[in-house]
From TrEMBL:
Keywords: Kinase, Membrane, Phosphoprotein, Transferase, Transmembrane, Transmembrane helix, Two-component regulatory system. It comes from the Bacteria. Its EC number is 2.7.13.3. May play the central regulatory role in sporulation. It may be an element of the effector pathway responsible for the activation of sporulation genes in response to nutritional stress. Spo0A may act in concert with spo0H (a sigma factor) to control the expression of some genes that are critical to the sporulation process. The modification 4-aspartylphosphate is found at D1128. This is Circadian input-output histidine kinase CikA. It holds the Pfam family Response_reg. It comes from Butyrivibrio hungatei.
Length: 1409
């Protein structure tokens, strides 16, 4: 009995060993390939054959290239192309474009592809037989040739070159003579052949829809089995073992994959469980693995003989088949979803893999193997098993915004919260939670960052400064009371010497050591005062500094900028084991050699973006985490991305490249037998398109060029590849290069060369050209002889005369058109500017401040836009006057200093807005007064200076006026305008002074203008007997020199040029006179124009009589006694000139002035018609008042000296003189823009009050990605800054507004912090405004009854939003000294009142009940 048991045991051991040996044999191929990965494909990444790398997918359907969203079959051809078949036709894909193959015409659909040993592509259609594509040639097999069914499902080729065709009705094959034959075997004649596969010995195996499997030898079926014969469920597909002949895999309707010798029964077959997959639809062997697919699931058989499902992909229906391309990327065809590509990807979206959708993340850290993620709405945690979890800490944090997560040396987790007043939260290993807030002594509850110090203490950066925590106690704080101007600390680190370096949000770096605090700013080498991160580099003994616009490092107290780094909007930096720096930025992740970066000698780098791996953008100023294994976790806009920077796999990837097509005059060019593309003789368009078959995430840079071609070709990324195009390509032999470049573009990694020959056109042949020259010379001699003989000279003279008359007629018509259009355009502009001027004069007394500032903002925008439009019209009118000969000099005596002062003041504002330097040098020996056309001199110089501002981005420009020569009566003046702008190309100099010409349009497309300014300037200079010319170096700048001669009136030297006239009073508009007894008749057919003039004269109290027609005006002149008549030139019925004639008959001496938008004619024209002069529309108020003062009797008029004026400040109060010292504010411009000192002080106060609220709105809009709201609020900031004279801030806001309108996210990301820092800095700069001049000690205590009444009245009035009554109560109460609690209440109420926050005011007053 015992011996029997021993025998059984021994047999079991032997059987077990045989089974193990059998499995080793079966899967031997797996073991030999593990650890080798010469390819960089998704299949290798999915199966773990490339260590530490993940995979991602891309779907192609009708929305991004495919004709429809169905795909039935895929094939990766040997030349690299992907063939996609479906019911809608055949598509070939090269990684860039999907090309539908429409020729031949019978290529209607595809259910199968096959590439034979001769490189031909066999296409099995669904209903039209077989199409064979062989380059430009093709063959067609249908029922006519004997095909047993027009619906084809599969192909295979034996070792003799016979191509077997599986149809829905049996099996056929095409022999080596391309003759179609039917494989006659009644057992499969009616069967649908679904799969054919060949083993390593050349034997072909097949499978039918009814579960029959068979083998073919020498074009005959030698073995055939039904599923039941083998003891199997219905066989649904078959796969040959490519390395062990005679062995096959069977897929069935069940959830088991069978493997063994073909024909063996189930008892002799190995079984591999496929659970949860069942009903196998497709088997394929790719990337060293057997892939198994059902119609809803994909997986593979791993080396441990287990089935592994392909997870985190969206294809779950209609799966038809799976294959791989030459790189090892997986391709999946779905009849319902299209095509899916699975590629290797170093960047792993761990939040998506865990099924989490966190939105914007700000911080990430590891704790006990769990991933802690700080988001905008709380703390998310991913457990070790990649499943989201929740603990006491995440519940405690709730939906508070988390900015940073840090683990200290003792395993405590520190969470920096930013909202809900949670402060700094500590999570101890025992589960206890401690919160440190301002109540506990923290500088602020808005925590930015936490760093662990050398002694284990916590260095905490907050919005209120620094806090140091040791042993759970706040041992030190450093904030504003320590002299810190900007207490928003974005980053904190500790040096080896124990000093704390704190990077701020706008004030550089503070080095804090005991009680010694030093600032490191721009004067010390920083390029920006916004410091995003400070990183210690132990190896190089330096501290890297990431600012808002550069990367720098500090060593021994010296700051050095890295100028060779290719990007400036960076966030953070990490180092791998190979001494590379990984730099996180808004564009992606840059990788550079750290030593090269320290030497500022970066010549090569790698960049990973959304186009080649990153799943989403990295969050600005976020905190990542690198573990001990080199895994870098990065906080992003839609989750957290992980990448191993120590083992980043890039692969030695060789890319297949090809000439996709060459077209000449839209005709395709084919290769000849020698592989040369023969382009025919043509001077038309040649298009050369390349295919770079890279299906990975690498997206390399590609260069295309013709060797010895007309240009250097193009360099672009593979995803943006486009065709090379040439017109008139010269004949000759060319080499077409397709090159793969390194990331930095400095090295050619791969170069494919193709031969092209362009045939010569007839006229390109030397012999033909010589003959043509002889013929042309002979013909020219003959023509000259004939022309002279037929007296062509007289004929030409008549033609020239006729052309001259036609040109003069056209020019006259143009001038007439400009005169008419001048009237039509100037009339509405007159209305707009006049009404706007009346708005700006309105008394702001008792008007809500917010409403007043909004109206003023709009009014300034209207004025600027109207003046710009008027300037364009004036240019057109000037050029018209010049061309028609009607432009004349208007010479008069003028003050030299006043002339240049008016020019400089107008340009100074524009220079300040663009942050350009503007130097003015006026010769002190210039005559004090001269005689000439000062207006035209002013226009010329303004044109030159305006151009200098337009075309200069960096640096500045200068105005230099000197006297070249002088005699007793005349002086030769030299005026020079020199800039550091873009300069002018030599070839453009001849067109510089040509009308309507704009040079270098591509570069200057964003600069407005008509191209008339310089032409008008040149003609004005010539009209004044002067000259204007230009010296320029392209890329460096230009100098325009204007030389003219002027008569001397007063030879006294000018002396030192004073830019601003201190004698001019500042303040609101004050009329020059008041004349309530004067009567002025205004005649205009446009009621709006009448309203404008009445409004402009309102302050003079002149009685204005209006009339809308010439006939009515004549009647009123007869009956009335008017001091002056203002008469529109162009009116229906009687026009202005006809009306004037009638008026002169009635009252010959009555002063009558023309109102006209047609300034082409000039003053001489109107005086010749009997007018006293003319007023141009839009009407200038000063000119209007001066004109009326000439004709109103003295006894009717009170001059401005005696006019009762509203009391108005003429200079700043003594306690406000400090405003002149505020950096960034031009007080003079502010007073001018505000309309007076009182309004200016009002505006300053309102600007200060709204900084916090506006900053919050702008920041929130930016963080939420609401670019439209962001742009609107920046536009408002621009106007508000301009009103208070903060021109630098206004300039920054203007550039940001332009970026917002252009959706330039890169510019916004790079400059938003700079703008906001500048804006917020005005809180400190203007803070003294809030200092009261009357101390509470000097005020009377508030009567208790009056205080009680005030509370009661406010409780009634605030819900009614009664602005005037609430303002009156506040003014009354603030006159008294208040108890501390009440003083705090009324201070907060006043703040809310200024912001019109009625809800906040109501909440505040209700809290007192």
């Amino acid at each position: 009995m015992k011996n029997g048991f021993k025998k059984i045991a021994f047999m079991a051991i032997v059987a077990g060993c045989m089974m193990i040996l059998m499995h080793i044999s079966v899967y031997a191929k797996y073991d030999t390939v593990v650890g080798t990965h010469s390819y960089y494909g998704g299949g290798y990444a999915v199966t773990g054959q490339i260590p530490d790398i993940s995979y991602s997918y891309e779907i192609y359907d009708a929305s991004n290239g495919l004709p429809t969203s169905d795909a039935m079959f895929l094939m990766g051809a040997s030349d690299g192309y992907i063939w996609i078949g479906g019911y809608s036709g055949v598509v070939r894909y090269d990684g860039s474009t999907f090309d539908r193959i429409d020729e031949p015409s019978y290529l209607t659909s595809s259910r199968a592809f096959f590439e034979d040993s001769r490189g031909r592509i066999w296409v099995g259609t669904n209903d039209n037989g077989v199409v064979v594509l062989d380059g430009a040639d093709s063959m067609y097999f249908s029922y006519k040739e004997g095909l047993t069914s027009s619906s084809v499902r599969i192909f295979e080729e034996d070792d003799n070159g016979n191509i077997f065709i599986g149809t829905t009705a049996g099996l056929c094959y095409v022999d080596q003579t391309d003759t179609l034959r039917v494989l006659q075997d009644e057992r499969i004649t009616e069967e649908r052949i679904l799969k054919l596969d060949k083993d390593s010995d050349g034997r072909i195996y097949g499978q039918t829809s009814n579960g029959i499997v068979f083998a073919i030898d020498d074009c005959e079926i030698t073995e055939l089995y039904e599923s039941i014969d083998l003891g199997l469920e219905k066989i649904t597909t078959i796969l040959v073992d490519p390395y062990d002949k005679g062995k096959v895999y069977y897929g069935t309707e069940g959830n088991v994959l069978y493997y063994g010798k073909f024909g063996d029964s189930i008892n002799n077959l190995d079984r591999i469980s496929l659970d949860p997959l069942s009903n196998v639809h497709w088997l394929n062997y790719d990337c060293n693995r057997v892939w198994v697919s059902s119609t809803s699931m994909i997986g593979y058989i791993d080396t441990d003989y287990t089935f592994k499902e392909l997870t985190n992909v969206p294809f779950d229906s209609g799966i038809e088949m799976v294959t791989a391309d030459y790189q090892g990327n997986l391709w999946v065809a779905s009849s319902t979803l299209g095509v899916m590509k699975v590629v290797a990807n170093n960047f792993i979206d761990i939040t998506h893999a865990a099924g989490m959708f966190t939105g914007v993340t700000n911080a990430v850290a590891l704790h006990n193997g769990d991933v802690y993620i700080g988001t905008e709405t709380g703390l998310d945690i991913i457990g070790k098993d990649n499943v989201p979890i929740e603990n006491e800490l995440s519940v405690y944090i709730g939906d508070a915004r988390v900015r940073c997560v840090t683990e200290d040396n003792d395993g405590n987790v520190w969470v920096s919260t930013y909202t809900h007043d949670l402060g700094l939260v500590c999570y101890k290993p025992d589960g206890e939670i401690i919160s440190f807030t301002s109540y506990d002594g923290m500088p602020s509850n808005q925590i930015r960052c936490v760093t662990v110090g050398k002694d284990g203490s916590l260095l905490v950066g907050t919005n209120g400064g620094l806090a140091v925590i040791k042993d759970f106690e706040i041992v030190r704080t450093v904030g504003a009371d320590a002299g810190i101007k900007n207490t928003v600390f974005l980053t904190v680190t500790e040096t080896d010497e124990g000093a704390i370096l704190a990077g701020t949000d706008g004030d550089g770096i503070y080095a804090i050591e005991d009680d010694d605090i030093k600032k490191i700013g721009r004067n010390n080498g920083l390029t920006s005062d916004v410091v995003m991160r400070i990183i210690k580099d132990e190896k190089r003994d330096i501290s890297w500094i990431v600012t808002s616009n550069s990367i720098e490092y500090m060593k021994n107290g010296l700051v050095t900028q890295i100028t060779s780094f290719p990007y400036n909007n960076n966030y953070d930096m990490y180092f791998d084991d190979n001494d590379n720096a990984w730099i996180l930025s808004s564009y992606g992740v840059y990788v550079v050699n750290a030593d090269d970066m320290e030497k500022d000698a970066i010549s090569d780098y790698k960049i990973y973006t959304l186009a080649n791996g990153l799943p989403y953008a990295i969050t600005s100023n976020s905190f990542g985490y690198k573990d001990q294994y080199g895994n870098l976790y990065m906080a992003g806009r839609n989750g957290v991305t992980k990448v191993n920077i120590n083992k980043y796999y890039s692969g030695d990837l060789e890319v297949l490249m090809d000439v996709k097509s060459i077209y000449c005059d839209n005709v395709k060019v084919e290769q000849d037998e020698e592989g040369v593309y023969q382009i025919p003789a043509s001077d038309g368009r040649v298009q050369i398109t390349a295919s770079v078959m890279d299906y990975s995430m690498m997206n390399p840079d590609v260069r295309l060029y013709l060797e010895d071609g007309p240009d250097g070709g193009v360099i672009t990324s593979r995803s943006k590849l486009s065709a090379l195009e040439y017109t008139g390509l010269p004949y000759g032999n060319y080499k077409f290069h397709i090159q793969i470049l390194s990331s930095g573009g400095g090295e050619v990694i791969q170069d494919e060369v193709f031969s092209i020959r362009k045939a010569p056109r007839l006229f390109e042949l030397v012999v033909i050209r010589l003959i043509l020259v002889i013929l042309v010379a002979s013909l020219a001699g003959f023509i000259v002889w004939q022309v002279m003989r037929l007296t062509v000279i007289r004929t030409q003279y008549e033609e020239i005369k006729k052309s001259k008359e036609e040109a003069e007629s056209a020019n006259t018509a143009k001038s007439r058109f400009l005169a008419n259009i001048s009237h039509e355009i100037r009339t509405p502009i007159n209305t707009i500017m006049g009404m706007n001027e009346m708005i700006m004069r309105e008394d702001p007394t008792n008007v809500p401040k917010g409403y007043f500032m909004s109206v003023m903002n709009y009014a300034f925008d209207i004025r600027n836009a109207s003046e710009s439009l008027l300037g364009l019209i004036n240019d057109l009118l000037d050029i018209s006057k010049i061309e028609s000969g009607k432009m004349h000099l208007v010479e008069r005596e003028y003050d030299t200093q006043e002339l240049f002062r008016s020019i400089v003041s107008m340009i100074r504002i524009k220079a300040t807005e663009k942050a350009l330097s503007f130097d003015v040098v006026i010769d002190e020996i210039l005559p004090k007064r001269m005689y000439g056309d000062a207006e035209k001199i002013k226009q010329v110089v303004l044109n030159l200076l305006t151009n200098a501002v337009k075309y200069t981005s960096v640096g500045g420009f200068s105005l230099n006026v000197s006297m070249e020569e002088r005699n007793d009566k005349e002086a030769v003046i030299r005026i020079s305008v020199k800039d550091t702008g873009m300069g002018i190309k030599k070839e453009d100099m001849d067109r510089l002074f040509t009308a309507y010409e704009r040079l270098d349009e591509e570069q200057n497309s964003g600069i407005q203008g008509t191209g008339l300014g310089l032409d008008i300037s040149r003609k004005f200079a010539e009209l004044m007997g002067g000259n204007i010319f230009c010296d320029s170096i392209y890329g460096e700048g230009s100098e325009f020199i204007f030389i003219l001669s002027q008569k001397i009136v007063d030879a006294t030297p000018l002396g030192i040029f004073i830019e601003h006239d201190q004698s001019k009073a500042s303040g609101p508009y004050v009329p020059k006179f008041i004349a309530p007894d004067a009567d002025v008749l205004v005649v205009d057919d446009n009621p709006m124009n009448l309203s404008v003039i009445k409004g402009l004269l309102k302050a003079t109290k002149v009685f204005v009589t209006t009339s809308e027609s010439g006939a009515d005006a004549i009647d009123k002149v007869k009956d009335g006694d008017f001091d002056v008549v203002l008469l529109d030139h162009m009116m229906p019925g009687l026009d202005g000139i006809e009306t004037l004639a009638k008026i002169r008959e009635i009252k010959p001496d009555l002063p009558v002035y023309a109102l006209t938008a047609n300034s082409v004619s000039g003053e001489e024209f109107y005086k010749s018609k009997g007018f006293n002069g003319y007023l141009a529309k839009p009407v200038d108020i000063e000119t209007l008042e001066s004109t009326l003062m000439k004709h109103i009797a003295e006894n009717k008029m009170e001059k401005s000296e005696s006019v009762d004026q509203t009391e108005e400040l003429t200079e700043l109060p003594a306690e406000m003189l400090w405003i002149y010292e505020v950096e960034g504010i031009s007080v003079q411009e502010g007073i001018k823009n505000s309309g007076g000192i009182s309004s200016y002080l009002f505006g300053l106060d309102l600007f200060l009050d709204t900084i916090d609220e506006n900053s919050r709105i702008i920041n929130d809009a930016y963080e939420e990605g609401n670019i439209r709201l962001f742009t609107i609020k920046v536009h408002a900031l621009k106007s508000s800054a301009r009103i208070i004279g903060a021109l630098g801030l206004a300039g920054l806001a203007e550039k940001m507004e332009e970026a917002g309108n252009n959706n330039d996210i890169v510019y916004i990301d790079g400059n938003k912090e700079k703008l906001m820092n500048e804006y917020v800095s005005f809180k400190e700069k203007l803070g003294r405004i809030k200092e009261t001049t009357v101390t509470d000690a000097s005020k009377e205590p508030v009567p208790e009854a009056e205080l009680k009444d005030a509370y009661g009245a406010l409780a009634d009035l605030i819900p009614q939003m009664d602005y005037d009554s609430v303002e009156m109560i506040l003014e009354s109460i603030m006159k008294y000294s208040l108890p501390d609690k009440d003083a705090e209440f009324f201070k907060e109420l006043s703040r809310l009142f200024k912001l019109f926050d009625w809800d906040g005011m109501e909440k505040l007053i209700n809290a007192t009940k």
